[in-house]
Amino acid sequence: MADIQRDKLTGSLRRDAVKKHVAAIHVSGKLTLLQRKLSNVLLLNAYDTLASQARHQIDARTLCMMIGYNSNDFQTLKQSLRGLAETVAEWDMLDEKGRQEWGVSSLLSYAKLKDGVCEYAYSPALADKLHDPKVFALINLNIQRRFTSGHALALYENCYRFVRTGSSGWWSLELFRRLMGVDGSSYYESYKHLNAKIIKPAVAEVNKTSNILLEPETRKRGRAVTDIRFKIKENPQLAILDLDDGEGHRHGAIYSKLRGLGVSDRLARQWLQTHGEEAIEAKLDYVSKRQNVESMVGYLSAALKEDYGAVGQGDAPAPQSAKAQRLGRVQQAVQGRSPTQRDADKRLFLSRIEDNVARADFERFGWMSPVNAAEIATFWEEFNPGLFDGIEGG
């Protein structure tokens, strides 16, 4: 996944990954897939203020959509929040002075829904552990959205932090069952059942879905399997899918013209990948004929964004076009949201974009992004059914 230019976003939702403390990961317990995703998003939302604020808030509708719930399914959200409040987190680790420390806490000390806002808190002791920057795993929320199995996501969370060392290290089967949330089940006391129902399906989904590849290894005492570890390496297939940087565009004549105008290498490749050489050449010709232009690059950017010159010789398309009407209604919908909600809306939309060029275009142009016009319309119609009613072709 491409990194979000986080300096262009504001608020506590500006990251696309959450630092998740090892202690929390190891004991997150028997959580459903949705509860596990919910736990990660709540931590992401709260992370910047864990040490300074006792309570945290997030727009409930946005939260539902980030997790994959129906945006109005507050009953499911209530059940999942209840599950987090009833789940015990336990840590057993060394403190800053090298002394062994054991502790226990509920994952959430409380949660409530009021006026469309989800408010929640962590116990002070757990918040301190969650915010500890020394030991954490980086959980990418764009990747976690792809998982369909809670066991697979649990395995990914527990293995990803070891990607640089190449191995999870040996876990006893007792610990592994606990990490997968199946401790206490007599059925999974059998390694044959554990392997068939948990290990093999989870490894297959991690390898297919995420940015790492896992290979399990076992250790035996006699004929009985006693320990398991996972060899870990980066997934080159995912990297190939995610790393299309427009390298080939550097060899074209239009790229050279853009660079000659002062357009940056990255932006030139982005424009070429988004609009194509023919469209950019037409806009270059159009811009070159304009008078009293202070910034050629700025004007060219606007011409590409607003499709200047597409209708007659004016500086903008017809104001009453379906495209213009849709943009106007999107702007109205955005203005109707609070500043906190607007920030969450942007973060949510970015979490749904997987194409690097589309992400970059949204980061640059926001809700007016031409590359994401169709997706933006779909996004806002989910929030406001009927938003584009009456617009021809809308």
UniProtKB/TrEMBL annotation:
Provide a GO biological process annotation: DNA replication initiation
Question: What SUPFAM superfamilies does the database record attribute to this sequence?
Answer: Winged helix' DNA-binding domain
Give the record's family classification: Belongs to the initiator RepB protein family.
Species this chain originates from: Roseovarius albus
Pfam annotation, one family = Rep3_N
Origin superkingdom: Bacteria
List the GO molecular function terms. Answer: DNA-directed DNA polymerase activity
Q: Which residues form the Initiator Rep protein WH1 domain?
A: 18-159
Protein known as: Initiator Replication protein
